[in-house]
Predict the 3D structure of the following.
Amino acid sequence: MKVVQFVAESLGDASYLVIDGPVAAAIDPQRDVRPFLRAAEEHGAAIQYVFETHVHNDYLSGGRELAERGAQVVVPAKSGIAFPHIELADGGVIEVGGARIGAVAAPGHTYEHTAYLLRDAGGAATAAFTGGSLLMAAAGRSDLLGPADTEELTRLQWETAHRLAALLPPAAQVYPTHGAGSFCSSTGIGGDRCGPLATELGRNPALASDSFETFRRLHLAERAPIPGYYQYMAPINRSGPKVYGEPPRPAHLSPGDMAGLLRDGVHVVDVRSRKDFAAGFIPGSLDIEESNSLLAYVGWLVPFNAPVALIAYDAAQAERVTADLFRIGYEDVRGYLAFADWGRETEQLPVVGVQQAISLWRSGDMATVDVRFAYEQEARPLPGALQRPVDQLPEWEATVPAGPLLVVCASGQRATMAASVLRRAGHEAIALAEGGAEDLLGA
């Protein structure tokens, strides 16, 4: 029996393939199922089952893609799935080759959330696929369904962690779906993607806290924003995402094509580094550099599934980003243009270093706009700055002062991004592109 892990860095999530002889099962597969199919083929196995730990809020599942290839989709009871599936309630078991995968009700991240225990042919529990319950050094967020459910789900998350720990030996592997980089993770997430339960017993707040109140305080300490596209994921996952076979590939656009798309109001997103964007960009384009957070920022700055065109370094980057956008339902990518092929007028985004930013902030010669997330601003406010979180940018864009603006965040990524949006709207914005609020506060 073998477990293969697949990490989607753009989402901070992991999926798995359990292989036992000629039979395989996918756990929480991403929408791009090519890696699962390749791995199964390499091991001489066929994917017969897809196990979903919950109805995902942060990506579109590849379950239907695999179902089109003959797999049966297994979901928690009361998931509300509208396409053919098997519901597995607490205690239910399905055999995968000589292995047995058993359902354990694990509410907390969502109400229907289910973990799956993996048992070998001798019946020993060797691993648990914990989805969004027990993570590495953390637990899955319990606030994604809204304030009315947060308290109850937090209590359930605590109880679930202890139930899972009681069902597993310390040497059993914990295989979570959400991990570092995922907005479904709570604070303190570990950098590792899986590990033995013994490690979590000593460090995970859901298991190591001396009381529920201690866990609750740690778990809810930092309320990260919820990416804008999350609200669309669960309904689509319940009805079933459109089956494509494989992710679409972006068309290669000419400079004239790109100019036409800009005139038509298509969202042109430049995914090159912020440094290169600042040095020269196509007028009207938006800076969202390729990173582990790209999809979250797209969800906040580009309306869901709106037409998009990409400015990239090359075809490989454009195809990579298009596949990532496909994971969250942005399917209308009109194509890409390599920036080097533009050959027309460009603009530059003014940027400043830390020392110049400190001088501007202290002098008050221009308004300082702090675009860190709200919980960061609350923890370490920047005196005199306008608090305008980047995740709320479409709501405040038209309300900032007309004069020059100094835009800062924590590292420069969000500042450059926000400045590009503000300049597109006609504001005179400059960005602290390498450095952030802590540098100003520590000066």
